[in-house]
Amino acid sequence: MNKLINWLNKHVVPIAARIGSIRWLVALRDAFIAIMPAMMAGAISTVLNALIRDIPTQFGWTGFVNSMQWLIGINAVVWTGTLAILGLIFSFTFGYQLAVQYKVEPVTAGIVTLGTFIMSLPQNFTLTLKAGLAKGAVKTLTDAGAVVSGKDVSMWGFFNFGKFFGAYGFFTVMLMGAIAATIYIWLMKKHITIKMPDSVSPAVANAFTGIVPAAVALYAVGIINYLFTQFGTTVIEFIAKVLQEPLLGLSQGYGAVLLMTILVQVFWFFGIHGTNVLGPVLDSIWLTAQIANINAFSKGQDLPYL
């Protein structure tokens, strides 16, 4: 037994310690921690609506539910500004925390990764109707910015709020945001920036310093997103289908849960904060599934991950 412990101390513990100190993983962990207040507020709104709407409805207490509509409405508004847009919030905190780790201007980095996330979203929708529309309906739609061609109605600038702004976007932020942040940080470190005189206030100087790195980073990911649209898809849908959904599916088995639980405890046994070391993995996979379940429950839908 002592030989095993000595071997683990010599070979495994140093590797775990190095993994726990990788700046990208630390930034990812801290980015998830930073969205915790929004998560908790959204979770409270979901639990309250379960207590005053869903459970009473199951027992037929419609009078009570009707009397609590004001609180149900408030909870829905809180959910809309928290769990429903958690991917959007995370897109900023991820870039911000990466910049903090590399000691460059963080607010601009957060804006870059936020813009990267928005770029990855589908911005058009096309709807084929069963019958043509009356002239009045066509005028109403065209005034709103839609294009009506026969039975087809299409519009640019439409974001599927309920689908893409929540946990669905986590993996896209981690991949595309990482590309944009890498470019931004590299250019900042190489001092490929606009330098302002010392007489300029720090706030203005920092803003100008980030112009060139931010523009290059955003154009780089913009090109990637444009190329995906030429193949009839978007970055977020591609990543979700190819990477996110398979990983989430694999993570729901007992084996995966047991393995991660054992690894966390093994690290703790050797005096290493197991949750911190494996936090990026735990949050990337299980937190994504957890938020997806909470959002589905809030909408009265079946839970996708059990």
From TrEMBL:
Q: Which GO terms describe its molecular function?
A: protein-N(PI)-phosphohistidine-sugar phosphotransferase activity
Q: How does it sit in the membrane?
A: Multi-pass membrane protein
Does Electron transport count among this protein's keywords? no
An annotated GO BP: phosphoenolpyruvate-dependent sugar phosphotransferase system
| Major subcellular site | membrane
A Pfam family hit: PTS_EIIC
Which keywords belong to this entry?
Cell membrane, Membrane, Sugar transport, Transmembrane, Transmembrane helix, Transport
Q: Which residue ranges run through the membrane?
A: 31-52, 72-95, 165-187, 207-228, 248-270
Q: Which GO terms describe its cellular component?
A: plasma membrane
Write out the annotated subcellular location: Cell membrane
Domain annotation PTS EIIC type-3: ranges: 8-306
Q: Which domain of life is it from?
A: Bacteria
Q: Which PANTHER family does the entry link to?
A: PTHR33989, PTS SYSTEM N,N'-DIACETYLCHITOBIOSE-SPECIFIC EIIC COMPONENT
Q: What is this protein called?
A: Truncated PTS system cellobiose-specific IIC component
Say which species the protein is native to: Lacticaseibacillus casei DSM 20011 = JCM 1134 = ATCC 393
